[in-house]
Specification:
Layout lengths: L11 H5 L24 E5 L1 H9 L6 H10 L3 E5 L1 H13 L4 H14 L1 E2 L17 H10 L4 E3 L11 E2 L2 E4 L1 H14 L1
Parallel strand pairs: 1-2, 1-4, 2-3, 4-6
Antiparallel strand pairs: 5-6
């Protein structure tokens, strides 16, 4: 080997250089892909949304579509230990099949983003159901874009808490579809 050349007879420069790309002019204008990638939404799903999705029998279910979109990495799903425990408890209590429950929890552990919560992060915000304060804390500490729920207790927050939008599954789907269509 001479000058760092490989046994194939190529010099070091030939290995480092990028091949030149020949561009042919097109007669029709083509859409140029955006160089800047949009950040994915960070989402917290309340337990009632997970239950609705996993118990749904309709393939057109908005909650089921949300889970499919998450599994296809269209958004990041945030959870904390207390929320995961609530998922486990409610999946069992509401009669979701063990196979569906295990599949969701395995995906949550591998694809989800765990948000560590300290006791001081959990502030009393929902007097009617203090258990919901953990869900809000997870969203706020995890800097979620959206918290998705069907729980009417969250209405006391007026649709937002510390820049976390509180929406239902259909609202988030509409926004996700718009973003995907514009890409």
């Amino acid at each position: 080997m001479r000058n760092g050349s490989a046994s194939s007879g190529k010099t070091w420069k030939q290995f480092v250089q990028r091949p030149s790309l020949r561009v042919r002019p097109s007669k029709t204008p083509q859409r140029r892909p955006s160089v800047i990638k949009r950040p994915r939404h960070r989402v917290v799903l309340d337990t009632n949304v997970i239950i609705a999705a996993l118990k749904s029998k309709s393939p057109q279910s908005p909650t089921l579509e949300l889970l499919r979109r998450w599994r296809h990495r269209e958004f990041d799903l945030l959870y904390c230990d207390a929320l995961r425990e609530e998922y486990v408890e409610k999946l069992l209590e509401k009669g979701v099949t063990p196979v569906r429950s295990a599949s969701f929890l395995a995906d949550l552990d591998t694809l989800g983003i765990r948000v560590p919560l300290a006791p001081e992060d959990i502030l009393p915000r929902i007097p009617a159901d203090p258990d919901d304060d953990v869900v809000i804390a997870c969203a706020v500490v995890g800097q979620a874009t959206y918290l998705v729920t069907y729980d009417p207790h969250f209405e006391v927050l007026g649709g937002e808490c510390q820049s976390v939008r509180i929406v239902n599954a259909l609202e988030l789907l509409r926004k996700s579809r718009k973003v995907k269509d514009s890409q």
